[in-house]
Amino acid sequence: MAQQYPEWIWQNGSIKPWAEATTHVMSHALHYGSSVFEGIRSYATPDGAAIFRLTDHLNRLYQSAKIYDMVLPYSADELAAACRAVIGKNGLGAAYLRPVAYRGLGGFGLSAETPIDVAVAAWPMGPYLGPDALKNGIDACVSSWQRFAPNTIPAGAKAGGNYLSGQLIAREARRLGFGEGIALASTGLLSEGAGENLFLVFDGVLHTTPASASILAGITRDTLKTLAREDGIEVIERDIPREYLYLADELLMCGTAAEITPIRSVDGKQVGTGKAGRVTLRLQELFFGLFDGRTHDKWGWLEQV
Ligand code: PMP
After folding, report:
1. Which of 41, 128, 142, 204 places its Cα 20 to 30 Å from the Cα of 98?
2. Do residues 146 and 247 both lie within one domain?
């Protein structure tokens, strides 16, 4: 079935029809991966559509750009307005937003000072890892592909080129019949999923891999750390060996797209009971409660459209 696209998109300062947001084939980013982007969700809340942690996502976009010496020609306020506009003008409620800034046409060298083009798209999106993933969990595998070492490509920048690694991990997992792949860092210790952070539960305590494990320190990861601690659940960031995946009482992946996805097995070994456990269910309740009013948003994470 052909992909259905929304009507409107924002590019370089204005809202335009989707089909008109084109770029030249010699754009730097297309050849060298020189783009930085964000993945953000909006939710249909009782008070109308709200974009989750928009300010924090845009902050990370500017941080990613800084790492690659990209000066965005728009302020964070302008991009926030663009995000609201693509939701509003397309009449979207629950959707996925994709702001992207990229080196455009204007030079062939690796260090060329090209113009920086910026676009923001939004489209309706359900659960990323399959319709039943949030409830029933997924079967994951450890990838034969490792994450890039920290002195090669900075994992802390959400840059287009990083996602060659993510594609190898995710495609291998799907080819082998798994729902998602989990990567080790160059140290051999656990890193993260192809596009998700990891939490393991041992004796009711949450463990997650540290920023030094070649992860993108996710905004959902931060949300869960905050919600858990607020709820009296201890959270520890630590180096984690691979085999702990098999021994955890509970295991989950989290990210803007994946939200909170339980993992029921890794490499064919059942995790815990093979079902979402007590801590995972509590985190899902607190997290999704933000969007239907059951969890009080004392942090101002919901930014109304
Ligand atoms: N790691 C990677 C590699 C990702 O692509 C993502 C998704 N952006 C995450 C982790 C989770 O980050 P966030 O919760 O900010 O979406």
Report:
1. 142
2. yes
